[in-house]
Every structure is written in C-alpha cells, then in structure tokens.
Design goal:
This protein is mainly α. The chain has one domain. It is 60% helix and 4% strand.
C-alpha cells in the first residue's frame, strides 16, 4: 500500500509541475518547438529545472544499497540505440510537434476536459493498441513440431 501512495503522490506532483510549467498548453509547447518563428523559450527553463532535480535525486538514490519500496534497483535491459528506439523517438517527436501534446501533459490536460486533450489521448491509446497487436502478430512462434522458431504470418490463422 505504501508503494501505491508513493506513486500517487509522485504522479500528483508531476501533474502539478506540468500544469504550473505550462506543458499542458499546446500553444506554449508549439511556441517552444517553433525555433524559426515566434520562439517561446519558457519551457526550456521548465525542462532544465526538471533535469536539475532529477540529477540531484538520482545521485542521492543511487548511493543507497537498495530502494525504499523494492528489494533491488531495476536492471536496464536495453542500452543500445537501435531502429526501434529511433523510430519511437521520431514518432514521439512528430506527434508532439503536430499536436502540442506528449503523453504526460495529455493525461494531465484531461482534467480540464478540453476536446483536444481528449482526442489526442484517445488517438494515442489507439496507436498503443495497434502497436501491441502488431508486435504480437510479428512475435516468434514455435513451428508445428515445437522445435524451430519462426515469425508468425497472416496465413498461420492462429496455429
């Protein structure tokens, strides 16, 4: 239960920071991303503040032998820059640039009930569902004998 309360408080602080910093306002985000036009650098200060707090807290946390709410620190499984990472980053950036929202501020902006926030969030969730379905469909499956691994195809029809 302690972990649930901690996560809830962290989420509330995150949402407040996004709201107070203007990250939930697409016009401000788009102004920040428009470096050749009417550039609004105010979000750079929000990001710098967040990075500063993270850097200090990360150093303090990593000095501990174990985290407070878990048995050990999580292992990082992916450390390479690969096509999947670059594609995901590009999609994130394009979506942010087109809509003025990214996932955290979009969920926070839902509290305002704004139509744009609702549409963006529903579209984002739909994209996540499509990706999950695509990833499952292209996952390796055993052959009929159960020995070799191959990729599923549309002609497998659930075999």
């Amino acid at each position: 239960m302690k972990a649930v309360w901690t996560a809830g408080i962290a989420g509330l602080l995150f949402a407040l920071g996004l709201g107070l910093g203007g990250m939930t306002q697409p016009s401000r985000v788009l102004g920040f991303l428009d470096v050749t036009g009417a550039w609004d650098p105010s979000l750079a200060f929000v990001m710098a503040g967040a990075l500063g707090v993270h850097a200090v807290l990360q150093r303090l946390i990593r000095r501990r032998k174990a985290p407070v709410l878990a048995a050990h620190f999580p292992a990082i499984s992916r450390t390479r820059v690969d096509g999947r990472l670059v594609t995901g980053a590009a999609l994130f950036g394009v979506g942010w640039g087109l809509a003025g929202y990214c996932p955290g501020p979009a969920f926070t902006a839902l509290a305002t009930g704004g139509r744009e926030a609702v549409l963006f969030t529903l579209s984002m969730l739909g994209g996540m569902l499509l990706f999950t379905a695509w990833e499952r469909a292209s996952a390796p499956v055993p052959d009929a004998a159960g020995r070799e691994v191959r990729h599923a195809t549309a002609s497998d029809n659930g075999r």
